[in-house]
Amino acid sequence: MEWLRGADTTYVHANTSTDDELAMIKRSGGSASVAPYVEMLMGHGHPPISRLLEQGVTPSLSIDVATSVPGDMFIQMRTALAQGRISAFGDDVDAALAPTLAHTDVLGFATLVVPRACGLGDRVGTRERHDPGLAPSPPMTGCRPPHSAPRRLP
Fold first, then answer.
1. pLDDT for 12-23, tens place per residue?
2. What whole-number distance in Å separates Cα of residue 43 and Cα of residue 32?
3. Domains in the chain and their CATH numbers?
4. What are the phi and psi torsion angles at 32 (to 5°)?
5. Each residue of 102-123: b (16+ CB within 10 Å) or e?
6. Residues in the chain with pLDDT < 70?
7. Separation CA 95–CA 97 (nearest Å)
């Protein structure tokens, strides 16, 4: 089963994974994808974003079940950010909030990490690399997104 754990493997959800299993993802060079909205809605448990980051694994964001949750990456980013902020609250309401997850983090999860998790990191440009030989990163918005335009089936 060792051949299953490689740089070309993306682990999805990982809500119930132990810290040792998350560390194994890092050691193997694999990636992890978190679908925060569906994970909380369907009771998978807390999205493991902070636990993955603690192990050195930067997760990508995904949607999973578009029939149950919005198929919009902005919703996923907002959900991930809100969940991170909620997790940062302590029991003392007078203590200052010290969130560890920032807006730029979740934007990176949705734009920079996704091409790598899909095996396209060497072919798709990101804001980190602007190589003219690479295709542009997948757009998150467009003038006519498929989910908002009427379609006529043959």
1. 999 999 999 999
2. 19
3. 2-117 (3.20.20.140)
4. -130, 145
5. eeebbbbbbbbbbbbbbeebee
6. 1-4, 124-154
7. 6
